[in-house]
Amino acid sequence: MLLIVIMVGVILSFGLSTDGIHPMISISNVLSKTESLEKTILLGVRLPRILSSLLVGGLLAIIGAMIQGVTRNPIAEPSILGVSQGACFFIAISYWMNIGVNLKTSFLASMIGATISGGLVILFIQKKNEGGGITKLLLAGTSMSMMLGAMTSVVGILSNKTQLLGFWINGGFQNTNYNHVGLALIASIVAFIFGVVQSSKINIINLGDEVAMGLGVNAQSTRFKVLIMIIPLVAIAVVVGKTISFVGLIVPQLIRLVIGDDYRKIIPLSFFAGAALLCYSDMFARTLMAPYEIPVGIFTSIIGVPFYLMMAKKEMS
Amino acid sequence: MKKNRQIIIIIGLLLILALCFFISIRWGTYSMSYGDIFNTLLGKGTPTENLAVLGIRLPRFIMSVLVGIAFSWAGGTLQTVFKNDLADPGIIGVNSGAALGAVLFIASSSGAYYEKLSDLSIFVLPFICIVSAIIAMFLILFISDFKTLRPRRMLLVGLGVNAGIGAIITAITFQGGVGQYNRVLIWTSGSIWGASWREVLVLFPIILISIIILFIMGRKLDILKLGDETSIGLGLSPDKLRRLIIGITVILAGAAVSFSGNMLFVGLIAPHLARALIGGKHRLFLPTAGIVGAILVSVSDTLCRNLFSPIEIPAGILVSILAVPYFIYLASKD
């Protein structure tokens, strides 16, 4: 069923346009062999964008599911913990220092940022494993993500690139090309395989550290391994889709509501659901206020925050 | 002996504030000597000096003092009322509600964010902000189950509300795409940018009246801090009192937001410092917190205005950068 939703989303966003190409024409255009302006737009601009929104959506959802699993914290997510914002902050700095920003340099910057902020989060998690850790982790993470976001804005003002960095802060898929798609594809495949392989261990960790130890799984080291693995994945998600918040929270939670607490199913299904969610969000972001574009992260935040509030209410009681 | 120490602390803080005053008046693109400043303040300046000091820098300084006082009094009393050391009108989400009200109002009336507000709008704006702050407060209390008073849940909810409303504000103001991001930031991070005498005159009476009422209720706040049973025993009705006090703090915060945006953490840091300096008696510590808050905001504003001149960064961001590590420390402590 999810696959059908995704297919419809792809076709819709392929067809929906701000340049007046009729959906049916656009499809027939792509299928025809002649070169035309429409074909260039569709294949050169719109297709990579759709593909990267699908891949990044799936990637973020898997990352969210894995973090939630290993920290036993249903609200954890890279943007809530500030990892994405750390990556984004360093990308902003690389813009400021006027290093020619391309895929390579932005990936490098994003990697540095994600490692620093992710490292802080990991330190915090490893230290505060006992009860009450959930709320503390979230408070620390959220305030750190707020601060990093604000600092990114400062860099934007100082380098006179506020509009550009506005998209970096709030997420968006403009200017994505096939290189981005390739990068996201690699990351998605790695994340998918890694997630599926680890999922049975995550299931066990989810029962509690002592139980896990009894069953022969070292919770500490698995947790560490998964969290370390997540850092480069977040970095890639930020390079391709910029800072898109809350996807990693909404999707795994919805899946969990539907199919229960089994990470062997949650992780792969999250990938497809995340892909669908982001594909639709990006379509709306692109067309709703045309010719202007709304940052796609704004959409996911507006959907995600009520969700987050609901979770916070449920978890704390 | 102890009394002496308290007086010394308050005088010391006032001296620091006075120092901030001179630095903030003097430091700027148009530089002038302290002698010139005195002359100008006495009304003997050249037209340019008059404009720089009396027209721009002085109202701005006063505005930052007012905003600092409003947020720290609101934060200090909320910390007592919610029995929550980390409460702050910004963090629990009241400020962002007020900011959303302001943005919606400006977007619907003129679309010119912050700049050419008519005289009428200047009067209406605080009112709108206060109303939307009240709505936000109700919402937050509802979501976080006020009755059970779980401090950390309230903060989690507040941070979520902040993120959500921030996104909505961005969506509203970002539409045009070009150049409007600066204005988004003013509302989402807080800035004293563009303050003039008109705004000061509107804000001053609201804040003055609110803090006088809170000061009068200082003793009752002291009692409330001892716990609900004690308060009932001493003849107070804690729920009623709490409702009244929350109302006043929301008015303070909402009014301040209408001209400064959603400035976070001032209401957290200033009362904490004040309590450490002077103890927890409300009639002493709230005014002290007010002075500390005024120092904090005016220093941040002066720095943010001048450090990267001619570019200005929102003062609220500097406050956040200073405050977040402290907040994380407090939040992760037991």
Annotation keywords:
heterodimer; A: 317 residues; mainly alpha; 14 helices; 79% helix; 0% strand; globular; B: 334 residues; 76% helix
Structural class of the helices, strands and pairings of chain B?
mainly alpha
How many distinct beta strands of chain A? 0
Mean pLDDT of chain A: 82
The overall average pLDDT of chain B, rounded, is 85
For the biggest sheet of chain A, the summary is: none
- The counted number of beta strands of chain B is 0
- Main beta sheet of chain B: none
Order of helices and strands of chain B: HHHHHHHHHHHHHH
End-to-end Cα distance of chain A: 34 Å
Shape of chain A: globular
What oligomeric arrangement do these chains adopt? heterodimer
SS-based class of chain A = mainly alpha
Chains forming the largest contact: A-B, 46 and 48 residues
How much of the polypeptide of chain B forms β-strand, as a percent range? under 5%
What is the number of helical segments of chain B per DSSP (H or I, 4+ residues)?
14
Order of helices and strands of chain A: HHHHHHHHHHHHHH
Would you identify the regions of chain A where 5 or more consecutive residues have pLDDT less than 50? none
Describe the protein's topology.
The complex is a heterodimer of chains A (317) and B (334).
Chain A: H1 2-15, H2 23-31, H3 37-71, H4 78-81, H5 83-96, H6 103-127, H7 133-158, H8 162-170, H9 178-205, H10 209-214, H11 219-241, H12 247-259, H13 263-287, H14 296-316
Helix pairs in contact in A: 1-13, 3-9, 3-11, 3-12, 3-13, 5-6, 5-7, 5-11, 6-11, 7-8, 9-11, 9-13, 12-13, 13-14
Chain B: H1 2-26, H2 34-41, H3 47-81, H4 94-109, H5 119-143, H6 151-174, H7 181-189, H8 197-216, H9 218-225, H10 228-233, H11 238-260, H12 266-278, H13 282-306, H14 315-332
Q: How does this structure look, described?
A:
The complex is a heterodimer of chains A (317) and B (334). By secondary structure, chain A is mainly α. Chain A is built from 14 helices and no strands. Chain A is globular and about 65 Å long. Chain B is 76% helix and 0% strand. In chain B, 52% of the residues are buried. At the A-B interface, α7, α8 and α14 of A face α6, α7 and α14 of B.
